[in-house]
Amino acid sequence: MDAKTIERYGDELYDAWRERRVLSPLLEREPGIVVQDAYAIQLRMVSRRVQAGETIVGKKIGVTSKPIQDFLGVYEPDFGQLTSGMVCSESDGVDLNRLIQPKAEAELAFVLEHDLVGPGITATDVIRATAYVAPCFEIVDSRIKDWTIKIQDTVADNASCGVFMLGNGKGDPRKLDITMAGMVLHKNGELFSTGVGAAVQGSPVNAVVWLANTLGRLGLPFRAGEVILSGSQSSLVPVTDGDELICTVGGLGKCRARFHGRSAL
């Protein structure tokens, strides 16, 4: 795909995000698009947000579960970049007026104390570089109509990033068994799903290793202070005005997300 076409699709996705509207799948309009093209489009979309005043605050890994990989027809995760405009707090909740067709995922976030520069990163390196882990919610959102996505569409759309929030609980990954720690998700007081760290690439640490090495080969290091979202441990949760989600990670604590406002669709 030539540079002009990549720029055009990246700008389309940026405008769709800014205007809270959806686009038809890129793969329908550009059948020859490959994943490398999609990442170039993603870079253009993210660069537009940075040019508008946001900063990069972390990275996310997606498509970590086998059912989602089977659905998209891919057998490795994808990634996106987190910006300052995506940060939410438990106290403020999630403003749905900023989103289009949101769905929530419960997962574990790694907050880094030291840089990680791949390739060659190991699980031990990740643990040593991590200041703490925290339960979190990622509210994924898609600029592609009706979530009709294949891997090229979601990658180009910055891995369907929406917003995210961290819980107040902080844990030391050197002392907490994050592989076997259970996660319980409640929606409006009722049990919605359960999960465990091992469901994410065998361990959330493995997911972060993969991401650090993959991005390292592309010249994108992890920086101290960044937040790394390690991949969903829950089913996707549809959310609307007035909903409350609480995810609880054994030995770590909770993250509570309250939703207000109205999404675009």
* CATH-level-2 architecture: Alpha-Beta Complex
Helix content: 25-40%
Distance between the termini: 31 Å
H/E element order: HHHEHEEEEHEHEEEHEEEE
Q: Please outline the major beta sheet.
A: 8 strands, mixed
How many structural domains? Answer: 1
**Stretches where pLDDT falls below 50 for ≥5 residues?**
none
Rg from Cα? 17 Å
Outline type: globular
Number of helices: 7
Strand percent estimate? 25-35%
Write the layout of secondary structure elements.
Elements: H1 3-19, H2 26-29, H3 35-51, E1 56-62, H4 66-72, E2 78-83, E3 87-88, E4 94-95, E5 103-112, H5 123-129, E6 130-140, H6 151-156, E7 163-166, E8 182-187, E9 190-196, H7 204-217, E10 227-232, E11 237-238, E12 244-249, E13 253-260
Parallel strand pairs: 1-10, 3-7, 4-13
Antiparallel strand pairs: 1-2, 5-6, 5-10, 5-11, 6-7, 8-9, 8-12, 12-13
Structure, explained:
This protein is of the alpha+beta class and 265 residues long. It is built from seven helices and 13 strands. The chain has helices at 3-19, 26-29, 35-51, 66-72, 123-129, 151-156, 204-217, and strands at residues 56-62, 78-83, 87-88, 94-95, 103-112, 130-140, 163-166, 182-187, 190-196, 227-232, 237-238, 244-249, 253-260. Strands 1, 2, 3, 5, 6, 7, 10 and 11 form an eight-stranded mixed β-sheet that branches. Strands 4-13-12-8-9 form a five-stranded mixed β-sheet, with no helix packed on it. A hairpin with a 3-residue loop joins strand 12 (244-249) and strand 13.
Structural features:
5-stranded mixed sheet; 7 helices; 27% helix; Fumarylacetoacetate hydrolase, domain 2; alpha+beta; 265 residues; globular; 29% strand
